[in-house]
Amino acid sequence: MTSDTEARLAAVEAQVQRLSDIEAVRQLRHRYHQCINEGAYDEIPLLFTEDGWLDFSYIGKANGRATLTKFFASMPRVLPFVKQFIHNHIVNIDGNRASAVSYMEARTINNGEAFIVAGRYDDDCVRQDGEWRFKSMTFEAYYTLPHNESWAQDDRFKMVRREGK
After folding, report:
1. Could you give the CA distance from residue 24 to residue 93 in angstroms, rounded to a whole number?
2. Cα 116 to chain centroid, rounded
3. pLDDT digit string, tens, across residues 106-161
């Protein structure tokens, strides 16, 4: 094989690896929302690294798998019904690290009232033992409003206020 052919083959292999990694990070995000939508909350902490963390602003924060497990175990009480829809997922790969952005719309029930939700997820992911996991997950809510209210108002955050928030 000529050096030109070897170089082209190496470039193709690198591109295939990059595309495979992008898809794996997208699948990680999709798996998270599949767990949310199906109520498989006990599986979500396993999508994070041991020291992984999340910051959902006024909704809550969790750091480490034990705290993440408690956080997601409370979801059925806080949101007995939730369906999330993800789109515009952008992934950047840098070796064994990735950063990603995705946008979410959701329909939920909180305290017996229907809500509409929209926001943005920012993720940092790492590859550990050949698997991609969340290192950090941040959610910036654009609005969380009762279904019968418009998001064109000053107070756009009316759902799921945890203690002390």
Report:
1. 11
2. 18
3. 999 988 899 999 999 999 999 999 999 999 999 999 988 888 877 666 766 666 55
Token pair of 51 as six digits: 């020291």
Instruction: For Cα atoms 104, 110, 115, give the angle at the middle one, nearest 5 degrees.
Output: 45
For the chain, the 3-state helix, strand and coil shares in percent, each to the nearest 5, are 35, 45, 20
Taking only the tens place, the pLDDT of each residue in 53-86 is 999 988 899 999 999 999 999 999 888 999 999 9
Confidence band, pLDDT 50/70/90 cuts, at residue 165: very low
Domains of the chain by range and CATH?
3-146 (3.10.450.50)
Separation of first and last alpha carbons in the chain: 64
Residue that is written with structure tokens 């190496």 in the block: 10
User: Residue 33 is inside which H or E element, if any?
Assistant: helix 3-38
